[in-house]
Structures are given as C-alpha cells and as structure tokens.
Design brief:
This protein is of the alpha/beta class. The protein has one domain: Metal-dependent hydrolases (TIM Barrel). The strands form three sheets. It has a five-stranded parallel beta sheet with strand order 1-2-5-6-7, sandwiched between helices. Helix 10 links the parallel strand 5 and strand 6. It starts with a helix and ends in an 8-residue tail after the last helix. The relative contact order is 0.13. The structure holds zinc ion.
C-alpha cells in the first residue's frame, strides 16, 4: 500500500512538474498538423470510391463542346479539376449510375455506354489533365504524370440487362467495379432500399454474374444490396469485394443501406474494403431525424423543394453533420477489423446538399486527414485509408482475371 502511494505521489509530481502547454503552443501544434495534413493529401494518392459527376453532368444537359470549361472550374456540384487538385484527389471513381426506372423502361445498357462516353470525352477534351484508368498501375502512372485518373464503376448491375456477355463489354470499356443493384431489387439481387425481397438474396442469374465478374477481373461492389444479398455474395465470390460508398450501421441503427458490424467483419475476413460514405444522413442519426422532420413538414404542407416555405424551413433545420463524424466511422471500422479494410467513398455529387461541415466538396480531404492525424493515426495508416487498401483489393481482383483484358 505504501509503495503504491509512493508511486502515486511520484506520478502526481511528474505530471504537475510537466509544463502545461499554453494556448499558443496548442494552436501552433494544430497549425503544424493542418500543414502536414495538406502535405499528406498531396503526397499520397487519394482514391474516392464513388463520385457521381457523370450523372450530375447528364442532369445538367452537359455538352462537352460548349461546357467543357466547367470541368475545370465551376460553382456547381462538388467536383471540378481545380477543387480536386486543391484537395489532393487523384483517382475519383466515376459512377456510371443507372436509375432503377431503367429496369422497367429498358435502355440501361445504352445509358451506361453514354455515361462512359461522357467520361471518355472529358479525357479527350483535357488529355493533359485527365485519363481514364482501369487498374491501380494505370492510376499510379497517370498520377506520376500529374493527371487526375478517372476509374469507373457502374452503379446498378441492371446495366447488363439480362446478358452476361455485357460484363466483358463493360470491362473492355474500362469499368472496374459494378454495384450489383441500386434502389430496387433487380435481376441480380435484392436492394436494401426495396421492401419486396424478390430473391431473398442473390438470384440464380446473379450467381452467374458474380462468377463472371470474378473471372473478368471486375470488382463486386456490395453497397446498396440487402443484407441477405450481401451474405450470398460473400459465400459466392472467390475475390475480395468493396463497398464503394457505405458507412457503419452502428451509428444509424435500422438503416440497412449501411453495413452492420457483423457484415464489416465478414467483409474484412474476405479481404475487402468499406469506403465510408460522407453524406450526413449516412453517418449521423441526428441528420436522419432532421431529414425526417423536413419530409414530414413538406408532406403536411404539400410543399416541393422549389417552394420558398420549404427552403426557409430547411435553412432553419440544417441536416449537416461534420468531418469528425466521418472520422468516427473510420475509427469504428478500425476498432472492429483493423486498419486494412477502410477507405473513402464520399458520394460527392450524389447526396445533394447534405454533406457534413468541412467536407463539402473534393477540396476538403485534407480536413479529414487533419482529424485523423489529431486522433493519432500514423501516416502509413492514413496512406492505407487514402488508397492502399483499395489498391490491394483492386490489384488482386485484376490479377486474378482469367483473361486479362487489353485496356
Ligand atoms: Zn449510391
């Protein structure tokens, strides 16, 4: 007892002797961390698993001949070349997004091809600034040449309609991943947003799709799919998978679009990566509650987003979370399965005006890196989050392709 008291006394005296940092020293340290975060954002490759630029451009009726300057700099949306360079973003996966309506109207493959054409047209318009990439090696080469690489992922396997051979077609066009479904159950599997559970997981056709994706070297993306579909995928795939833009359900109980702890553990066991979605309603329960309040108010008062009453209500009910919350999701994955299974999948240009404070667009990645440094993440850990984890999965899937494609 005496000894313990003695040790305690020494400890107290050591602690009390240690000069406490002044406010000035604290802010000087903080400034250094911010500078280091900027440096790391530019020294490391940054990949982002999901950016909805192509569909945003389609929505805006973008024309490469007349509107191409907006790719370099614009006040619209969350992405342009200038802001990407400020943020250190090197490899934004361009989402080739197929809305689920196309599953009934037809034309899904046509839409996918036209969005890929659009990404290629960006490369053609600015060959010194952008280049389409289909492997991690290609990204590294392009980044070394000072370019922003544009890998592609199709969001919604409906793009292949009912034709397995379209998978090879899309791989030949440079597609690196396919999100099996989107807002509705499709021919491949069930969606987390749907309520019909048409297949109770992955369909027979979906089984062939996964097998063929493994064979061709296309990553399977489990974002958007239902829990039962996820567990079917994990049983069927011979390759590690990604969740291109999903967050942790731990923080948003009942939101099936995010991944449960159990799913994250299974994903990690398979060698995969969850790329955290930044959208406030993906990361923060409070934001979900405010969103529901806004929807209720709009419904009760019969308002559309264009009505001034709606605008003033949303202005006084901000749904924004903050950059720390995104770091909380990263912390959570790391606490569950370690540092090797987490990455970034912002959903920029895909989640509207719901992005968290200090993560508003592609110029803001350094703000997240700063929070991670402040929380004690090592620089090599941050490097894994920025790109190495995704490169590991992507490289593995590509290297196991039965017939490596000439891309
Ligand atoms: Zn999505």
């Amino acid at each position: 007892m005496k000894n313990i008291s003695f040790v305690f006394l020494i400890l107290v005296s050591v602690i009390s002797c240690k000069p406490t940092p002044t406010g000035n020293e604290d802010s000087a340290n903080d400034e250094q961390l911010k500078i280091r975060a900027q440096e790391l954002a530019h020294n490391f490759i940054i990949t982002d698993g999901h950016i909805d630029l192509p569909y945003r451009l389609k929505h805006q009726k973008f024309n490469i001949d007349t509107d191409k300057a907006s790719i370099l700099s614009t006040t619209e949306g969350d992405f342009d070349f200038e802001r990407a360079k400020i943020g250190g973003l090197d490899a934004p996966f361009m989402s080739i997004y197929i809305p689920s309506d196309y599953q009934t109207t037809g034309g899904a493959k046509l839409l996918a091809d036209s969005l890929i054409d659009m990404v290629e047209s960006i490369e053609r318009a600015f060959p010194e600034k952008f280049a389409v990439a289909a492997t991690p090696e290609q990204v590294s080469q392009m980044v070394a040449a000072g370019k922003i690489a544009l890998p592609m992922g199709i969001e919604n396997g409906a793009a292949i309609e009912d034709n397995l051979s379209y998978l090879a077609h899309f791989r030949n066009r440079g597609v690196s991943y396919i999100t099996l479904t989107h807002a509705k159950d499709n021919l491949i599997c069930d969606s987390s947003y749907d309520t019909t559970y048409m297949h109770n997981g992955v369909s027979k056709f979906g089984e062939s799709v996964i097998k063929e994706m493994n064979r061709l070297g296309i990553m399977v993306d489990v974002s958007h799919i239902s829990d039962s579909a996820f567990y079917d995928v994990m049983r069927l795939t011979t390759q590690p998978v990604i969740a291109s833009h999903s967050s942790c359900r731990h923080f948003t109980p009942g939101f099936e679009r995010n991944m449960s702890d159990e799913m994250i553990k299974v994903l990690a066991k398979n060698g995969g990566v969850i790329q955290i979605n930044f959208g406030s309603t993906f990361i923060d329960e409070n934001s979900i509650a405010v969103k529901e309040e806004i929807e209720k108010y709009a419904e009760e008062n019969n308002l559309t987003e264009e009505d001034s009453l709606y605008k003033s209500y949303t202005a006084s009910h901000p749904i924004y979370s903050n950059v720390d919350k995104v770091a909380d999701h990263i912390d959570h994955v790391v606490s569950l399965v370690g540092i090797d299974h987490v990455g970034l999948g912002s959903d920029y240009d895909g989640v509207g005006d719901s992005l968290p404070l200090l993560l508003k667009d592609v110029s803001h990645y350094p703000n997240l890196i700063y929070v991670l440094l402040k929380r004690g993440y090592s620089e090599s850990d941050i490097e894994k989050i920025c790109y190495k984890n995704v490169f590991r999965v992507w490289g593995e899937v590509v290297s196991h392709a039965e017939q490596p494609q000439a891309l």
